[in-house]
Protein backbone atom coordinates (compact mmCIF):
# COMPACT_ATOMS: atom_id res chain seq x y z
CA UNK A 1 0.00 0.00 0.00
CA UNK A 2 1.34 3.45 -0.94
CA UNK A 3 0.62 5.84 1.91
CA UNK A 4 1.23 9.60 2.02
CA UNK A 5 1.23 11.26 5.45
CA UNK A 6 0.47 14.97 5.14
CA UNK A 7 1.56 17.11 8.08
CA UNK A 8 2.72 20.48 9.31
CA UNK A 9 5.64 18.91 11.19
CA UNK A 10 7.67 15.76 11.70
CA UNK A 11 10.74 14.73 13.58
CA UNK A 12 13.63 14.92 13.02
CA UNK A 13 13.16 18.01 10.87
CA UNK A 14 10.61 20.21 12.63
CA UNK A 15 8.59 19.75 15.81
CA UNK A 16 6.23 21.93 17.80
CA UNK A 17 4.29 19.26 19.68
CA UNK A 18 3.24 15.64 19.74
CA UNK A 19 2.28 15.62 16.05
CA UNK A 20 5.95 15.71 15.11
CA UNK A 21 6.60 12.58 17.19
CA UNK A 22 3.51 10.85 15.79
CA UNK A 23 4.41 11.26 12.12
CA UNK A 24 7.99 10.07 12.45
CA UNK A 25 7.38 7.11 14.74
CA UNK A 26 4.22 6.00 12.89
CA UNK A 27 5.99 6.34 9.54
CA UNK A 28 8.87 4.17 10.76
CA UNK A 29 6.40 1.57 12.04
CA UNK A 30 4.65 1.44 8.66
CA UNK A 31 7.98 1.00 6.90
CA UNK A 32 8.87 -1.88 9.24
CA UNK A 33 5.56 -3.53 8.31
CA UNK A 34 6.59 -3.38 4.65
CA UNK A 35 4.39 -0.48 3.56
CA UNK A 36 5.51 2.16 1.03
CA UNK A 37 5.29 5.30 3.17
CA UNK A 38 5.97 8.95 2.35
CA UNK A 39 5.67 12.15 4.37
CA UNK A 40 5.08 15.58 2.88
CA UNK A 41 5.51 18.75 4.95
CA UNK A 42 6.55 22.40 4.52
CA UNK A 43 10.21 23.36 4.28
CA UNK A 44 10.71 25.83 7.13
CA UNK A 45 13.55 28.34 7.06
CA UNK A 46 15.71 26.81 9.86
CA UNK A 47 15.67 23.42 8.12
CA UNK A 48 17.66 24.77 5.15
CA UNK A 49 20.81 25.22 7.21
CA UNK A 50 20.22 22.57 9.86
CA UNK A 51 19.61 19.80 7.31
CA UNK A 52 21.66 20.72 4.21
CA UNK A 53 20.99 17.31 2.69
CA UNK A 54 17.41 18.44 2.02
CA UNK A 55 18.54 21.14 -0.41
CA UNK A 56 20.61 18.56 -2.29
CA UNK A 57 17.55 16.41 -2.99
CA UNK A 58 15.65 18.43 -5.62
CA UNK A 59 12.64 16.44 -6.81
CA UNK A 60 10.06 18.63 -8.57
CA UNK A 61 8.98 22.18 -9.34
CA UNK A 62 5.58 23.52 -10.37
CA UNK A 63 3.16 26.44 -10.21
CA UNK A 64 -0.44 26.42 -9.02
CA UNK A 65 -3.25 28.94 -8.80
CA UNK A 66 -4.83 30.42 -5.69
CA UNK A 67 -7.63 32.42 -7.25
CA UNK A 68 -5.92 35.08 -9.38
CA UNK A 69 -2.48 34.49 -7.86
CA UNK A 70 0.18 32.13 -9.15
CA UNK A 71 2.31 30.41 -6.52
CA UNK A 72 5.55 28.62 -7.26
CA UNK A 73 6.64 25.55 -5.32
CA UNK A 74 9.83 23.52 -5.25
CA UNK A 75 9.84 20.02 -3.82
CA UNK A 76 12.85 18.34 -2.25
CA UNK A 77 13.12 14.73 -1.16
CA UNK A 78 15.30 12.73 1.22
CA UNK A 79 14.95 9.14 2.42
CA UNK A 80 15.37 8.29 6.08
CA UNK A 81 14.44 5.23 8.15
CA UNK A 82 12.48 3.72 5.28
CA UNK A 83 10.41 6.89 4.78
CA UNK A 84 10.48 9.20 1.76
CA UNK A 85 10.28 12.76 3.09
CA UNK A 86 9.05 15.44 0.67
CA UNK A 87 9.44 19.13 1.54
CA UNK A 88 7.49 21.90 -0.18
CA UNK A 89 9.60 25.06 -0.54
CA UNK A 90 7.50 28.25 -0.68
CA UNK A 91 8.14 31.80 0.46
CA UNK A 92 5.29 31.72 2.99
CA UNK A 93 7.26 29.22 5.08
CA UNK A 94 10.57 31.10 5.07
CA UNK A 95 10.07 31.95 8.74
CA UNK A 96 11.70 30.82 11.96
CA UNK A 97 8.60 29.32 13.63
CA UNK A 98 6.21 26.64 12.44
CA UNK A 99 2.98 28.24 13.64
CA UNK A 100 1.68 31.26 15.48
CA UNK A 101 1.45 33.79 12.66
CA UNK A 102 -1.60 35.88 11.82
CA UNK A 103 -1.76 34.45 8.30
CA UNK A 104 -1.47 30.77 9.27
CA UNK A 105 -4.77 29.88 7.60
CA UNK A 106 -3.47 31.30 4.31
CA UNK A 107 -0.02 29.73 4.75
CA UNK A 108 -1.45 26.25 5.23
CA UNK A 109 -4.01 26.77 2.48
CA UNK A 110 -1.00 27.37 0.26
CA UNK A 111 0.63 24.18 1.55
CA UNK A 112 -2.52 22.13 0.97
CA UNK A 113 -2.88 23.48 -2.57
CA UNK A 114 0.75 22.57 -3.23
CA UNK A 115 0.21 19.04 -1.90
CA UNK A 116 -2.91 18.67 -4.02
CA UNK A 117 -0.91 19.65 -7.10
CA UNK A 118 1.92 17.31 -6.10
CA UNK A 119 -0.51 14.39 -5.76
CA UNK A 120 -2.04 15.20 -9.15
CA UNK A 121 1.42 15.17 -10.74
CA UNK A 122 2.49 11.96 -8.98
CA UNK A 123 -0.87 10.25 -8.86
CA UNK A 124 0.05 6.86 -7.43
CA UNK A 125 -0.98 6.98 -3.75
CA UNK A 126 -3.54 4.57 -2.34
CA UNK A 127 -4.09 6.47 0.92
CA UNK A 128 -3.60 10.13 1.81
CA UNK A 129 -3.55 10.51 5.60
CA UNK A 130 -4.07 14.10 6.80
CA UNK A 131 -3.36 15.43 10.28
CA UNK A 132 -5.08 18.27 12.15
CA UNK A 133 -6.58 21.48 10.77
CA UNK A 134 -3.50 22.49 8.79
CA UNK A 135 -4.14 19.71 6.26
CA UNK A 136 -7.87 19.12 6.77
CA UNK A 137 -8.95 20.79 3.51
CA UNK A 138 -7.07 18.25 1.40
CA UNK A 139 -9.75 15.50 1.39
CA UNK A 140 -12.26 17.94 -0.11
CA UNK A 141 -9.81 18.99 -2.82
CA UNK A 142 -8.94 15.36 -3.55
CA UNK A 143 -12.61 14.57 -4.15
CA UNK A 144 -12.06 16.30 -7.52
CA UNK A 145 -9.12 14.04 -8.38
CA UNK A 146 -9.94 11.76 -11.33
CA UNK A 147 -8.22 8.84 -9.59
CA UNK A 148 -9.96 7.56 -6.43
CA UNK A 149 -7.76 8.02 -3.37
CA UNK A 150 -8.64 6.91 0.14
CA UNK A 151 -8.48 9.77 2.65
CA UNK A 152 -8.13 9.71 6.43
CA UNK A 153 -8.08 12.66 8.84
CA UNK A 154 -6.53 12.22 12.28
CA UNK A 155 -7.55 14.84 14.84
CA UNK A 156 -4.69 15.20 17.30
CA UNK A 157 -6.10 18.27 19.06
CA UNK A 158 -9.66 19.43 18.30
CA UNK A 159 -9.08 22.73 20.10
CA UNK A 160 -7.20 24.00 17.03
CA UNK A 161 -9.46 24.19 14.00
CA UNK A 162 -8.37 26.76 11.40
CA UNK A 163 -10.81 29.62 10.98
CA UNK A 164 -11.30 31.63 7.78
CA UNK A 165 -13.97 33.62 5.95
CA UNK A 166 -16.56 32.64 3.37
CA UNK A 167 -14.62 34.40 0.61
CA UNK A 168 -11.47 32.48 1.49
CA UNK A 169 -12.99 29.35 -0.05
CA UNK A 170 -12.46 30.91 -3.45
CA UNK A 171 -9.43 33.06 -2.65
CA UNK A 172 -7.42 30.23 -1.10
CA UNK A 173 -8.85 27.01 -2.56
CA UNK A 174 -10.58 27.94 -5.85
CA UNK A 175 -13.80 26.45 -4.46
CA UNK A 176 -17.38 27.64 -4.67
CA UNK A 177 -18.86 29.54 -1.74
CA UNK A 178 -21.71 27.06 -2.02
CA UNK A 179 -19.79 24.83 0.38
CA UNK A 180 -20.12 27.59 2.97
CA UNK A 181 -23.72 28.53 2.20
CA UNK A 182 -24.84 24.90 2.48
CA UNK A 183 -23.16 24.58 5.89
CA UNK A 184 -20.72 21.93 4.69
CA UNK A 185 -17.64 23.87 5.83
CA UNK A 186 -19.33 26.49 8.01
CA UNK A 187 -19.17 26.57 11.79
CA UNK A 188 -20.95 29.51 13.33
CA UNK A 189 -20.25 32.44 11.05
CA UNK A 190 -16.89 31.20 9.80
CA UNK A 191 -15.34 28.80 7.32
CA UNK A 192 -13.76 26.05 9.45
CA UNK A 193 -10.94 23.90 8.03
CA UNK A 194 -11.35 21.10 10.56
CA UNK A 195 -15.07 20.76 9.90
CA UNK A 196 -14.35 20.60 6.18
CA UNK A 197 -12.00 17.69 6.80
CA UNK A 198 -14.47 15.91 9.07
CA UNK A 199 -17.18 16.20 6.43
CA UNK A 200 -14.92 15.21 3.52
CA UNK A 201 -12.48 12.50 4.65
CA UNK A 202 -13.45 8.87 4.17
CA UNK A 203 -12.53 8.06 7.77
CA UNK A 204 -11.81 10.24 10.78
CA UNK A 205 -10.09 9.25 13.98
CA UNK A 206 -8.60 10.70 17.10
CA UNK A 207 -5.65 9.40 19.06
CA UNK A 208 -7.28 7.38 21.84
CA UNK A 209 -10.45 5.41 22.39
CA UNK A 210 -11.52 7.43 25.43
CA UNK A 211 -10.97 10.76 23.67
CA UNK A 212 -13.14 9.56 20.78
CA UNK A 213 -15.90 8.76 23.27
CA UNK A 214 -15.40 12.14 24.96
CA UNK A 215 -15.85 13.96 21.66
CA UNK A 216 -18.98 12.04 20.74
CA UNK A 217 -20.59 12.67 24.13
CA UNK A 218 -19.67 16.37 24.39
CA UNK A 219 -21.84 18.32 21.95
CA UNK A 220 -20.85 21.76 23.24
CA UNK A 221 -17.06 21.65 23.57
CA UNK A 222 -14.66 22.67 20.80
CA UNK A 223 -17.29 24.77 19.08
CA UNK A 224 -19.68 21.85 18.81
CA UNK A 225 -17.22 19.71 16.84
CA UNK A 226 -18.27 16.61 18.77
CA UNK A 227 -21.88 17.13 17.77
CA UNK A 228 -20.87 17.41 14.11
CA UNK A 229 -18.95 14.14 14.30
CA UNK A 230 -21.75 12.41 16.23
CA UNK A 231 -24.55 13.54 13.94
CA UNK A 232 -22.78 13.42 10.58
CA UNK A 233 -19.87 10.96 10.76
CA UNK A 234 -20.47 8.78 13.82
CA UNK A 235 -19.92 5.48 12.00
CA UNK A 236 -16.77 6.69 10.25
CA UNK A 237 -15.13 7.90 13.48
CA UNK A 238 -12.89 5.92 15.83
CA UNK A 239 -10.05 6.17 18.33
CA UNK A 240 -6.60 4.61 17.95
CA UNK A 241 -4.09 4.99 20.78
CA UNK A 242 -0.68 6.30 19.75
CA UNK A 243 2.35 4.11 20.12
CA UNK A 244 5.78 5.09 21.39
CA UNK A 245 9.06 5.16 19.51
CA UNK A 246 10.77 2.49 21.58
CA UNK A 247 14.04 2.93 19.68
CA UNK A 248 14.38 6.43 21.12
CA UNK A 249 12.85 5.74 24.53
CA UNK A 250 14.61 2.74 26.07
CA UNK A 251 16.37 2.91 29.46
CA UNK A 252 18.59 -0.02 28.46
CA UNK A 253 20.19 1.89 25.56
CA UNK A 254 19.37 5.59 26.13
CA UNK A 255 22.55 7.61 25.49
CA UNK A 256 21.18 10.68 27.27
CA UNK A 257 21.02 9.17 30.76
CA UNK A 258 23.79 8.71 33.29
CA UNK A 259 23.25 5.00 33.88
CA UNK A 260 21.36 2.54 31.72
CA UNK A 261 19.17 -0.03 33.44
CA UNK A 262 16.48 -2.63 32.99
CA UNK A 263 13.88 -4.16 35.28
CA UNK A 264 16.49 -6.08 37.25
CA UNK A 265 18.54 -2.95 37.96
CA UNK A 266 15.89 -0.23 38.09
CA UNK A 267 16.64 0.79 41.69
CA UNK A 268 20.36 1.20 41.09
CA UNK A 269 19.72 2.94 37.78
CA UNK A 270 17.34 5.45 39.30
CA UNK A 271 19.72 6.23 42.15
CA UNK A 272 22.54 6.94 39.69
CA UNK A 273 20.34 9.09 37.48
CA UNK A 274 18.98 11.00 40.47
CA UNK A 275 22.49 11.89 41.54
CA UNK A 276 23.32 12.97 38.00
CA UNK A 277 20.35 15.28 37.58
CA UNK A 278 20.71 16.74 41.08
CA UNK A 279 24.36 17.51 40.33
CA UNK A 280 23.47 19.07 36.98
CA UNK A 281 20.81 21.31 38.56
CA UNK A 282 22.82 22.15 41.68
CA UNK A 283 20.52 20.25 44.04
CA UNK A 284 21.36 18.01 47.01
CA UNK A 285 22.99 14.93 45.48
CA UNK A 286 22.50 12.89 48.65
CA UNK A 287 18.70 13.26 48.65
CA UNK A 288 17.11 9.82 48.82
CA UNK A 289 13.36 10.47 48.88
CA UNK A 290 10.73 10.25 46.14
CA UNK A 291 11.33 12.45 43.10
CA UNK A 292 8.26 13.76 41.30
CA UNK A 293 8.54 15.31 37.85
CA UNK A 294 6.57 16.92 35.05
CA UNK A 295 7.60 17.73 31.49
CA UNK A 296 4.79 19.86 30.18
CA UNK A 297 3.44 22.98 28.63
CA UNK A 298 2.65 25.29 31.55
CA UNK A 299 -1.00 25.90 30.68
CA UNK A 300 -4.39 25.48 32.28
CA UNK A 301 -5.19 22.53 30.01
CA UNK A 302 -2.24 20.61 31.42
CA UNK A 303 -3.50 21.00 35.01
CA UNK A 304 -0.72 23.31 36.18
CA UNK A 305 -2.65 24.47 39.25
CA UNK A 306 -2.98 20.81 40.26
CA UNK A 307 0.81 20.51 40.23
CA UNK A 308 1.06 23.74 42.22
CA UNK A 309 -1.30 22.27 44.85
CA UNK A 310 1.31 19.61 45.65
CA UNK A 311 4.16 22.04 46.36
CA UNK A 312 3.24 22.92 50.00
CA UNK A 313 3.21 19.21 50.87
CA UNK A 314 6.55 18.12 49.42
CA UNK A 315 8.63 18.74 52.52
CA UNK A 316 6.30 16.86 54.86
CA UNK A 317 6.73 13.74 52.71
CA UNK A 318 10.45 14.37 52.11
CA UNK A 319 9.84 14.62 48.37
CA UNK A 320 11.19 16.80 45.57
CA UNK A 321 9.64 18.09 42.35
CA UNK A 322 11.46 18.96 39.11
CA UNK A 323 9.46 20.51 36.27
CA UNK A 324 10.61 21.17 32.71
CA UNK A 325 8.23 23.51 30.94
CA UNK A 326 7.30 26.81 29.37
CA UNK A 327 3.97 28.38 28.51
CA UNK A 328 1.38 30.99 29.32
CA UNK A 329 1.34 30.13 33.05
CA UNK A 330 5.13 30.18 33.34
CA UNK A 331 5.35 33.31 35.52
CA UNK A 332 2.61 32.12 37.89
CA UNK A 333 4.23 28.72 38.20
CA UNK A 334 7.66 30.21 38.82
CA UNK A 335 6.31 32.51 41.52
CA UNK A 336 4.86 29.52 43.36
CA UNK A 337 7.97 27.38 42.84
CA UNK A 338 10.18 30.06 44.41
CA UNK A 339 8.29 29.63 47.69
CA UNK A 340 9.47 26.07 48.21
CA UNK A 341 13.01 24.74 48.44
CA UNK A 342 11.96 21.29 47.21
CA UNK A 343 10.81 22.56 43.78
CA UNK A 344 13.04 23.18 40.75
CA UNK A 345 11.74 24.68 37.48
CA UNK A 346 13.65 24.42 34.19
CA UNK A 347 12.18 27.08 31.89
CA UNK A 348 13.19 25.55 28.59
CA UNK A 349 12.76 22.27 26.77
CA UNK A 350 16.00 20.33 26.88
CA UNK A 351 15.82 16.93 25.16
CA UNK A 352 18.80 15.40 26.99
CA UNK A 353 17.60 16.68 30.35
CA UNK A 354 14.12 15.31 29.65
CA UNK A 355 15.54 11.82 29.08
CA UNK A 356 17.54 12.07 32.30
CA UNK A 357 14.51 13.28 34.26
CA UNK A 358 12.34 10.37 33.09
CA UNK A 359 15.10 7.99 34.19
CA UNK A 360 15.68 9.67 37.57
CA UNK A 361 12.06 10.19 38.66
CA UNK A 362 9.93 7.90 40.77
CA UNK A 363 6.61 9.53 39.82
CA UNK A 364 5.51 11.56 36.80
CA UNK A 365 2.72 14.15 37.09
CA UNK A 366 0.31 14.46 34.17
CA UNK A 367 -2.92 15.87 35.67
CA UNK A 368 -4.36 17.23 32.41
CA UNK A 369 -7.95 18.42 32.11
CA UNK A 370 -7.90 17.31 28.49
CA UNK A 371 -5.38 14.96 26.83
CA UNK A 372 -6.29 13.34 23.49
CA UNK A 373 -3.54 10.74 23.89
CA UNK A 374 -0.26 11.79 25.44
CA UNK A 375 3.04 9.95 25.21
CA UNK A 376 4.74 11.16 28.39
CA UNK A 377 2.86 8.61 30.49
CA UNK A 378 4.09 5.84 28.17
CA UNK A 379 7.68 7.05 28.37
CA UNK A 380 7.53 7.30 32.15
CA UNK A 381 6.22 3.75 32.55
CA UNK A 382 8.89 2.40 30.21
CA UNK A 383 11.49 4.02 32.49
CA UNK A 384 9.96 2.59 35.68
CA UNK A 385 8.46 5.94 36.64
CA UNK A 386 4.87 5.70 37.86
CA UNK A 387 2.48 8.20 36.25
CA UNK A 388 -0.08 10.20 38.23
CA UNK A 389 -2.85 11.14 35.80
CA UNK A 390 -6.43 12.32 35.45
CA UNK A 391 -8.82 9.85 33.87
CA UNK A 392 -9.15 11.62 30.51
CA UNK A 393 -8.37 10.68 26.91
CA UNK A 394 -5.39 8.48 26.30
CA UNK A 395 -4.39 8.67 29.96
CA UNK A 396 -7.50 6.69 30.83
CA UNK A 397 -6.68 4.11 28.15
CA UNK A 398 -3.09 3.48 29.25
CA UNK A 399 -2.73 4.10 33.01
CA UNK A 400 -4.43 1.87 35.58
CA UNK A 401 -4.69 2.79 39.24
CA UNK A 402 -3.00 0.97 42.10
CA UNK A 403 -6.43 -0.35 43.09
CA UNK A 404 -6.59 -2.38 39.83
CA UNK A 405 -4.37 -5.14 41.18
CA UNK A 406 -2.23 -7.04 38.68
CA UNK A 407 -2.61 -4.48 35.88
CA UNK A 408 -1.86 -1.44 38.08
CA UNK A 409 0.87 0.76 36.61
CA UNK A 410 0.20 4.19 38.12
CA UNK A 411 -2.21 6.43 40.01
CA UNK A 412 -5.38 7.89 38.54
CA UNK A 413 -8.02 10.30 39.76
CA UNK A 414 -11.35 11.58 38.48
CA UNK A 415 -11.01 14.70 36.37
CA UNK A 416 -13.80 16.45 38.28
CA UNK A 417 -12.24 15.72 41.70
CA UNK A 418 -10.83 19.02 43.00
CA UNK A 419 -8.45 17.28 45.40
CA UNK A 420 -7.85 14.23 43.21
CA UNK A 421 -4.30 15.04 42.16
CA UNK A 422 -3.27 15.96 45.70
CA UNK A 423 -4.78 12.75 47.09
CA UNK A 424 -2.96 10.74 44.41
CA UNK A 425 0.27 12.44 45.46
CA UNK A 426 -0.23 11.37 49.08
CA UNK A 427 -1.09 7.81 48.01
CA UNK A 428 2.07 7.67 45.90
CA UNK A 429 4.27 8.95 48.73
CA UNK A 430 2.80 6.52 51.23
CA UNK A 431 3.33 3.58 48.89
CA UNK A 432 6.88 4.69 48.14
CA UNK A 433 7.85 4.86 51.80
CA UNK A 434 6.15 1.49 52.37
CA UNK A 435 8.35 -0.01 49.61
CA UNK A 436 5.23 -0.94 47.68
CA UNK A 437 5.89 0.30 44.15
CA UNK A 438 8.00 -2.59 42.80
CA UNK A 439 5.15 -4.54 41.20
CA UNK A 440 3.72 -1.44 39.53
CA UNK A 441 7.14 -0.57 38.13
CA UNK A 442 7.39 -4.09 36.74
CA UNK A 443 3.98 -3.85 35.07
CA UNK A 444 4.89 -0.49 33.58
CA UNK A 445 8.30 -1.55 32.29
CA UNK A 446 6.96 -4.78 30.78
CA UNK A 447 4.15 -3.02 28.93
CA UNK A 448 4.15 -3.06 25.12
CA UNK A 449 4.00 0.58 24.06
CA UNK A 450 5.49 0.08 20.60
CA UNK A 451 3.83 1.27 17.43
CA UNK A 452 3.34 -2.20 15.98
CA UNK A 453 -0.23 -2.75 17.21
CA UNK A 454 -1.30 0.85 16.60
CA UNK A 455 0.18 0.89 13.09
CA UNK A 456 -1.72 -2.28 12.26
CA UNK A 457 -4.91 -0.64 13.56
CA UNK A 458 -4.39 2.21 11.09
CA UNK A 459 -3.80 -0.24 8.24
CA UNK A 460 -7.02 -2.00 9.20
CA UNK A 461 -8.76 1.39 9.16
CA UNK A 462 -7.43 2.09 5.65
CA UNK A 463 -8.70 -1.28 4.49
CA UNK A 464 -12.24 -0.57 5.70
CA UNK A 465 -12.52 2.21 3.11
CA UNK A 466 -14.25 1.06 -0.06
CA UNK A 467 -12.71 2.23 -3.31
CA UNK A 468 -14.78 5.07 -4.69
Automatic annotation (TrEMBL):
Pfam families: Glyco_transf_5 (PF08323), Glycos_transf_1 (PF00534). InterPro entries: Glyco_trans_1, GS/SS, Starch_synth_cat_dom. Residues 2-227 form the Starch synthase catalytic domain. One of its GO terms (biological process) is glycogen biosynthetic process. Its EC number is 2.4.1.21. Coiled coil: none annotated. Residues 289-403 form the Glycosyl transferase family domain. Pathway: Glycan biosynthesis; glycogen biosynthesis. It catalyses: [(1->4)-alpha-D-glucosyl](n) + ADP-alpha-D-glucose = [(1->4)-alpha-D-glucosyl](n+1) + ADP + H(+). GO terms for molecular function: alpha-1,4-glucan glucosyltransferase (ADP-glucose donor) activity; alpha-1,4-glucan glucosyltransferase (UDP-glucose donor) activity. The keyword Ubl conjugation does not apply. Keywords: Glycogen biosynthesis, Glycosyltransferase, Transferase. ADP-alpha-D-glucose binds at residue 15. Synthesizes alpha-1,4-glucan chains using ADP-glucose. Belongs to the glycosyltransferase 1 family. Bacterial/plant glycogen synthase subfamily. This is Glycogen synthase. It comes from Treponema rectale.
Amino acid sequence: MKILLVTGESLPYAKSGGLGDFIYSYGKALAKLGEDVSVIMPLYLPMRSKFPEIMEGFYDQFDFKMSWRTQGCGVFMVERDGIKFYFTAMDRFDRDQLYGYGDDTERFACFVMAVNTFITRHNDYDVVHCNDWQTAMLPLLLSYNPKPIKTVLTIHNPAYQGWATRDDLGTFFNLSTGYYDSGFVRLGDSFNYLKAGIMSADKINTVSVTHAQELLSDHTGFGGMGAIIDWCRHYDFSGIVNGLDTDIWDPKTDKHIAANYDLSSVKEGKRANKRAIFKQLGMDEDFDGPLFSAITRLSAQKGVERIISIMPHLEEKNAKLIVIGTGEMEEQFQAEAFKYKNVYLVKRYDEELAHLLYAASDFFLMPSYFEPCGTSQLISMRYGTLPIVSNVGGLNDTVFDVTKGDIANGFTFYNNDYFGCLNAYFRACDLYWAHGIDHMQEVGMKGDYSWKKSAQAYLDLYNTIDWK
